[in-house]
Amino acid sequence: QVQLVESGGGSVQAGGSLRLSCAAIGYSHMWYCGAWFRQAPGKEREEVARVDSDGRATYTDSVKGRFTISQDNAKNTLYLQMNSLKPEDTAMYYCAAAPYRTCAYVREFPYWGQGTQVTVSS
Fold it and tell me: What is the pLDDT of residues 89-112, one digit of tens each?
């Protein structure tokens, strides 16, 4: 019954910015660990970042200092602010959620969005 709906993707030039949003529908848990993943054609899925309800966030090395993940608990919405975008950031981006207050030990995400495309041109 839980649906995650992504929005905010698009096509930008290198150095530009995008803000992705992920709205949860039918999510009744008090807390969650939220994450963003991405997958480019012919490549493996990669976790970009995760954040828990206390604001503790972790990032993959390639996006540190450029991307910021956050969540609005009241709105059940997850965000990914992407700055200084590079062509290698081009991928389908997916949001995911798990019903835990902390992300520290989350390895599986039961809820997934359908994806939003991000394309960065040189």
Answer: 999 999 999 999 999 999 999 999
